[in-house]
């Protein structure tokens, strides 16, 4: 079946594929009406592009030191100037984007499926399993994210892998709670009962029916959380607990350049702007997605 | 004439399109009991609310004439409207579960309505509130006044609503489906109560409902609304002489104990009725 | 047992269980996770004899559950171990540093509530207007900035460029150790001692970190107030109130707002906990001698006992605050009775 706009927007879809894609297209049209969300999406795509194509966008090496040219102001040769060891700032920022986005993707890849599984299992099975899992979730939620992440990183060795693991350990509880809340809504529905009557095992019901239904609100939550993860990662870097120098992570860059705040202020400021723009973009997109996927929350 | 409305139009705007929910409604009401009957979506509630300008923000209201007691309500200032609302026109909503403030006691809510328009001390207002609760035939009024809305039944909640709206002694009462959320046994009681109070106080009444036989017992005149228009206005006693096919269809669908039929007829809608 | 007492007992049981879980988690972080907890406790350069002694002291040759038992026992006696860096007991260190953080957090939340709640109500009442949109954007910006970025920018602008704010630290050198400690809150203590110059000095130093923390809390408080109010304003009882002829102000503040007031208490409790988190980096930037500074300094020196102790404290405070908020909710909202 040819994919055309009419096919997608047909009032009565003839097959499942058409219905699913039609719905996705309608959501996309809704989202497109929100200028801030589209701006956010644009910025994120741009960041991704910059991160992926980093080596092509700059002639400099992220680690190459030129001490004779340290703390240079922005110029034609160095678009954003150089840092305290003479490294080109523009290069370090886009390579830093790689680090940051890599960390975020790693965290989400670890936590979203885990949180989703724990939440759906707790919501579906109920009883003792539910109580136990939710108790564990509550315990993790009792600590502010940064403080718990700091504690974890302190126990392991400071570095990117520890930071990712630490953030992941603090990021999964909200997803579990969300998945559980969504599951509780569907648990007693007729179609679940029908599935059970045909002999489907609980695992199959959870995997095939319940988890997919939780995905839309999870996507919204993940997008909104991204900015929080970026900020936590940067905070860890700032405190020296995340990516270690000379790795070009934005938070770490700010920490090492901190003492030049009052003189060569652009050196710590550029990574600040990078963090701000990326977080803001994710927040705009997440807000837009929430308006589209869950309108009653506006 | 208390209420004069001519060519009332209410439209809702959303992004690109505009939807007209009320398309040119005209009627007038004096010191009588007037009913507006129609199905869901006919625009009857909106018409009633437009008189008090209590429509949601995205509604666009226009009319050739929209008057209460000679006062032009179109584009009236908030000050003018506030002098009419409550003091001269009372408004009863459908479901007391939602229409009463959940965190204020019943007595406080009624006393507030009293004090706003009649002044006086808090104590006097509370006494008056208890008196009003007795007027709507609630036993143990003093105890009920201390309770919260979720602690009383639907029927009692609706009585509270009536008491609250009658506190400032208005001239007109608008009741928007006052019995639709209640049990069948309680419905007639509440309507009878409204009827008695309105008659005793010499007020006008605009009763909105979807229940044709119910309103025909209590009201003097009936207007039938369909798809945003009034299709027929007639005396309540002359309903059986209705001309418009929609009204005739509605009457024909009613089951009757005196004239039992093997099969109830269904309403066949004609697209021409929309015009 | 009446229903209320039964509920109280079960809540208490639940609370204790959660607190117990907190200790398990912190034990895990402090003893199980590090590759060698002994080295974490005594530092890399300790001589072998010390290492062996501490290993025996810490009971690391014992099975895990025995170790946990010791840990729990110590906790119940208020012993959080000793800090390698300060050589004091962690408990006394925390008692010294925590009031400074609380001073910041309390001032910040008061300001954030006083400004944020009316802003949220306003934004809800004028939904869709440019005022509402700008408030939303300001709040969104608050969620998109790390606390330390704003702290650094504030230092740059108000201290370096404009020169109107004092530098980092809690008070000027001349006032150090001059004010007798009564509450631990410098502002209160200097007032109690009658030293108005010291009071002004303390306030001036507090201004920047408090404003920054207040801004971040405000972002959350305003957004939640707006959401709650939008919900409340769409209720039928609001139409009733308007139909009664009440003024807009009365409808908003005496009818709609009270229905959300209790929910806001929970929001404030959550925000306070979030403030403790924000304090960690803010204290770092402003050299504020509070719990956050204590935590980060210990972190950088791999001094695990303070880290675990401070983390446990923050978690406990959060759980207790939440429980308090829940209790207030039950007591104040007539619908829940």
TrEMBL record, chain A:
<keyword id="KW-0813">Transport</keyword>
<keyword id="KW-0472">Membrane</keyword>
<feature type="transmembrane region" description="Helical">
    <location>
        <begin position="265"/>
        <end position="286"/>
    </location>
</feature>
<dbReference type="GO" id="GO:0005886">
    <property type="term" value="C:plasma membrane"/>
</dbReference>
<feature type="domain" description="ABC transmembrane type-1">
    <location>
        <begin position="97"/>
        <end position="286"/>
    </location>
</feature>
<dbReference type="Pfam" id="PF00528">
    <property type="entry name" value="BPD_transp_1"/>
</dbReference>
<keyword id="KW-1003">Cell membrane</keyword>
<keyword id="KW-0812">Transmembrane</keyword>
<keyword id="KW-1133">Transmembrane helix</keyword>
<comment type="similarity">
    <text>Belongs to the binding-protein-dependent transport system permease family.</text>
</comment>
<keyword id="KW-0997">Cell inner membrane</keyword>
<protein>
    <submittedName>
        <fullName>D-ala-D-ala transporter subunit</fullName>
    </submittedName>
</protein>
<dbReference type="InterPro" id="IPR000515">
    <property type="entry name" value="MetI-like"/>
</dbReference>
<feature type="transmembrane region" description="Helical">
    <location>
        <begin position="218"/>
        <end position="243"/>
    </location>
</feature>
<dbReference type="GO" id="GO:0055085">
    <property type="term" value="P:transmembrane transport"/>
</dbReference>
<dbReference type="Pfam" id="PF12911">
    <property type="entry name" value="OppC_N"/>
</dbReference>
<dbReference type="InterPro" id="IPR050366">
    <property type="entry name" value="BP-dependent_transpt_permease"/>
</dbReference>
<feature type="transmembrane region" description="Helical">
    <location>
        <begin position="146"/>
        <end position="172"/>
    </location>
</feature>
<feature type="transmembrane region" description="Helical">
    <location>
        <begin position="101"/>
        <end position="126"/>
    </location>
</feature>
<feature type="transmembrane region" description="Helical">
    <location>
        <begin position="36"/>
        <end position="57"/>
    </location>
</feature>
<dbReference type="InterPro" id="IPR035906">
    <property type="entry name" value="MetI-like_sf"/>
</dbReference>
<dbReference type="InterPro" id="IPR025966">
    <property type="entry name" value="OppC_N"/>
</dbReference>
TrEMBL record, chain B:
<keyword id="KW-0813">Transport</keyword>
<dbReference type="GO" id="GO:0005524">
    <property type="term" value="F:ATP binding"/>
</dbReference>
<dbReference type="InterPro" id="IPR003593">
    <property type="entry name" value="AAA+_ATPase"/>
</dbReference>
<dbReference type="GO" id="GO:0055085">
    <property type="term" value="P:transmembrane transport"/>
</dbReference>
<protein>
    <recommendedName>
        <fullName>ABC-type dipeptide transporter</fullName>
        <ecNumber>7.4.2.9</ecNumber>
    </recommendedName>
</protein>
<keyword id="KW-0067">ATP-binding</keyword>
<dbReference type="GO" id="GO:0005886">
    <property type="term" value="C:plasma membrane"/>
</dbReference>
<dbReference type="InterPro" id="IPR003439">
    <property type="entry name" value="ABC_transporter-like_ATP-bd"/>
</dbReference>
<comment type="similarity">
    <text>Belongs to the ABC transporter superfamily. Drug exporter-2 (TC 3.A.1.117) family.</text>
</comment>
<dbReference type="InterPro" id="IPR050388">
    <property type="entry name" value="ABC_Ni/Peptide_Import"/>
</dbReference>
<dbReference type="InterPro" id="IPR027417">
    <property type="entry name" value="P-loop_NTPase"/>
</dbReference>
<keyword id="KW-1003">Cell membrane</keyword>
<keyword id="KW-0472">Membrane</keyword>
<dbReference type="GO" id="GO:0016887">
    <property type="term" value="F:ATP hydrolysis activity"/>
</dbReference>
<feature type="domain" description="ABC transporter">
    <location>
        <begin position="3"/>
        <end position="252"/>
    </location>
</feature>
<dbReference type="Pfam" id="PF00005">
    <property type="entry name" value="ABC_tran"/>
</dbReference>
<keyword id="KW-0547">Nucleotide-binding</keyword>
């Amino acid at each position: 079946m040819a994919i055309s706009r009419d096919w997608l927007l047909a009032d009565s879809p003839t097959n499942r594929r058409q219905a699913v894609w039609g719905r996705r297209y309608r959501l996309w049209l809704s989202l497109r009406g929100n200028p801030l969300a589209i701006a956010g999406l644009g910025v994120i795509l741009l960041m991704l592009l910059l991160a992926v194509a980093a080596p092509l966008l700059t002639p400099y090496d992220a680690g190459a030191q030129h001490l004779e040219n340290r703390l240079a102001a922005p110029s034609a040769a160095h678009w954003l100037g150089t840092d305290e060891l003479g490294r080109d700032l523009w290069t370090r920022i886009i390579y830093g984007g790689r680090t940051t986005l890599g960390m975020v993707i790693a965290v989400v890849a670890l936590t979203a499926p885990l949180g989703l599984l724990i939440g759906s299992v707790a919501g579906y099975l109920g009883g003792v399993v539910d109580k136990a899992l939710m108790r564990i979730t509550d315990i993790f939620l009792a600590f502010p994210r940064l403080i718990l992440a700091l504690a974890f990183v302190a126990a392991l060795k400071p570095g990117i892998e520890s930071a990712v693991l630490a953030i992941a350990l603090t990021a999964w509880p909200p997803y579990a709670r969300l998945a559980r809340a969504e599951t509780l809504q569907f648990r007693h529905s007729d179609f679940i009962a029908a599935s059970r009557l045909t002999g489907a095992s609980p695992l199959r019901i959870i995997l095939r029916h319940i988890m997919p239904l939780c995905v839309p609100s999870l996507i919204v939550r993940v997008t909104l959380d991204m900015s929080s993860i970026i900020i936590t990662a940067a905070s860890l870097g700032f405190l020296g607990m995340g990516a270690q120098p000379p790795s070009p992570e934005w938070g770490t860059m700010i920490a090492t350049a901190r003492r030049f705040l009052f003189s060569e202020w652009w050196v710590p400021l550029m990574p600040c702007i990078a963090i701000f723009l990326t977080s803001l973009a994710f927040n705009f997109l997440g807000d837009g997605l929430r308006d589209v996927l869950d309108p009653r929350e506006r | 004439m208390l209420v004069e409305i001519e060519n009332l139009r209410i439209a809702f705007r959303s992004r690109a399109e505009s939807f007209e929910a009320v398309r040119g409604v005209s009627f007038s009401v004096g010191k009588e009991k007037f009913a507006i009957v129609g199905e869901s979506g006919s625009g009857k509630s909106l018409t009633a609310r437009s008189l008090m300008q209590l429509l949601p923000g995205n509604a666009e209201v226009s009319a050739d004439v929209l008057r209460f007691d000679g006062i032009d309500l179109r584009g009236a200032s908030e000050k003018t409207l506030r002098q009419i609302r409550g003091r001269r026109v009372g408004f009863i909503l459908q479901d007391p579960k939602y229409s009463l403030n959940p965190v204020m006691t019943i007595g406080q809510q009624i006393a507030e309505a009293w004090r706003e328009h009649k002044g006086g001390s808090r104590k006097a207002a509370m006494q008056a509130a208890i008196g009003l609760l007795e007027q709507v035939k609630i036993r143990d009024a003093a105890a009920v006044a201390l309770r919260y809305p979720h602690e009383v039944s639907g029927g009692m909640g609706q009585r509270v609503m009536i008491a609250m709206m009658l506190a400032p002694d208005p001239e007109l009462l608008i009741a928007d489906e006052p019995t639709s959320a209640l049990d069948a046994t309680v419905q007639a009681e509440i309507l009878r109560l409204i009827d008695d109070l309105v008659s005793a106080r010499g007020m006008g009444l605009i009763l909105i409902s979807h229940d044709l036989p119910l309103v025909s017992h209590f009201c003097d005149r009936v207007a039938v609304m369909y798809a945003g228009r009034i299709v027929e206005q007639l005396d309540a006693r002359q309903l059986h002489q209705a001309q418009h096919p929609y009204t005739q269809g509605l009457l024909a669908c009613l089951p009757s104990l005196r004239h039992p039929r093997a099969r109830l007829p269904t309403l066949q809608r004609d697209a021409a009725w929309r015009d | 047992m009446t229903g209320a007492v039964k509920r109280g007992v079960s809540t208490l049981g639940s609370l204790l269980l959660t607190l117990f879980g907190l200790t398990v988690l912190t034990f895990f972080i402090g003893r199980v996770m590090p590759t060698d907890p002994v080295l974490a406790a005594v530092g890399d350069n300790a001589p072998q004899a010390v290492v062996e002694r501490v290993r025996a002291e810490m009971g690391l040759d014992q099975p895990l559950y025995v170790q946990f038992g010791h840990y729990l026992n110590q906790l119940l006696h208020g012993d959080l171990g000793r800090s390698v860096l300060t050589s004091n007991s962690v408990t006394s260190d925390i008692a010294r540093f925590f009031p400074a953080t609380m001073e910041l957090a309390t001032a910040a939340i008061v300001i954030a509530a006083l400004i944020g709640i009316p802003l949220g109500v306003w934004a809800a009442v004028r939904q869709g207007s440019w005022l509402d949109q700008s408030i939303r954007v300001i709040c969104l910006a608050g969620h998109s900035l790390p606390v330390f970025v704003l702290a650094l920018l504030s230092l740059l602008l108000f201290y370096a460029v404009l020169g109107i704010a004092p530098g980092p630290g809690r008070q000027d050198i001349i006032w150090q150790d001059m004010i007798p400690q009564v509450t631990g809150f410098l502002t209160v203590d200097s007032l109690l001692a009658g030293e108005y110059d010291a009071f002004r000095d303390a306030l001036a130093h507090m201004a920047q970190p408090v404003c920054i923390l207040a801004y971040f809390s405000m972002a959350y408080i305003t957004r939640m107030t707006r959401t709650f109010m939008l919900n409340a304003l769409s209720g039928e009882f609001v139409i009733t109130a308007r139909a009664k002829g009440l003024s807009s102000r009365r409808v908003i503040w005496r009818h709609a707002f009270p229905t959300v007031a209790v929910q806001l208490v929970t929001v404030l409790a959550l925000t306070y906990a979030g403030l403790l988190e924000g304090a960690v980096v803010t204290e770092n930037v402003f050299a504020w001698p509070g719990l956050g500074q204590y935590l980060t300094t210990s972190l950088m020196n791999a001094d695990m006992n303070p880290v675990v102790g401070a983390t446990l404290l923050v978690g406990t405070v959060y759980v207790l605050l939440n429980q308090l908020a829940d209790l207030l909710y039950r007591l104040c909202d007539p619908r829940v009775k």
